Amino acid sequence: MMATMTELSPTAGKTKYSQDTRVDESLVPKKVLSFRSTRYGIAFIAHFCNFILTAQYAAINISMVAMVNGTSHQSQFNGSTESLPLDALGGSNDAPNSLPAEGSIFGGQHALWERWGPPCERSRLCTLALSGMMLGTFTIILLGGIISQTLGWPFVFYIFGGIGFVYCLLWFVLLYDDPVSHPWISVTEREYIVSSLAQQVSPHKQPLPFKAMLRSLPLYAICLCSFSHQWLITILIVYMPTYISSVFNINIRDNGFLSAFPFIISWVTGILGGQLADFLLTKNFRLVTVRKIATFLGNFPSSVLLVALSYLTPDYVTTMTLLVVSCGLTPFCQSGIYINALDIAPRHSSFLMGASREFGYTAAILAPTISGFLLSQGPEFGWRNVFLLLFAINLSGLIFYLLFGDAVVQDWAKDRKLTRL
Q: At residue 114, does pLDDT exceed 90?
């Protein structure tokens, strides 16, 4: 990538790509390490953070049924897994998923990329970090039931909690606020990152322009599309085990494997999506175009496939194929709406990312409640209504983002000597 960028002529430096990312390419060194670099090491650390974070939250859904149905830790699970309710793997129809508390954590992670992520590499760095969520979901769905059955439900928390404790120690030791303060980063990489962000990182802290934010259509587009996409994610995580069991009537152990498999595909596509986004940028695609393409791929095909699923005659191969493809495409949004705040307001991206995530995660509260009500009206049309509602919400948020989404630094996010709210 760097070779492509440094070969651009002075005229090429005025392309739409360079205008969108606001990078003075004359300041970028000609050769910088990639996957062996410190910034990619930080991305892998954040990847593991999201892995353990998602696994810990999902562990509540895995273990909740065992908690309330028995006082003994192991007696509930020493028998056959056939007796476990379907919701032991995917959450209950009327219990919201526990993901909303993650918004502040993602905002904190994006504060790193304000000072560590060169604009031409933000897609791959952020998606590498965020894809840990999918790996965590895959792991806990696959192993949570097995651990509960063999050791008892408390060990789900002991194991993943212990891993999280060890990880926190690594986070405190290995992570630094910016490249300048990092003791082990190479001089070449430090100069590369600092020069790439010279026009985006403010030397002094600025107050948040709340009034301007409330009038910003690109910001509303991010929030609304995050809400609609989170509705899709919640349905897939919470209701995929229930749907598979209702269609094929299989035991809970096989259900766990089938429900987990699509998320390992999501993990792969999430990482590849960031590579694809940055590749398109090197081909002089406008940054806003790349963000909208990624958001479209992560929303529209997935919701369409779920609607189509409700109209098809249940077939094992067809059903699992559509579920795998639908779930596998959703991480493309990691290269779209979920890092768009870094484009429109790099100085305030940590706050905006946390706020937009929290707004989006309200879908994790509403989706199980409303979907559970629809399913209670009757199994014949229940799933069809759930998927049709999902499609309507997803399409609405996507259209709003395609119309009003942007990737240019907003006027209210630029450096000012005097900030008036």
A: no
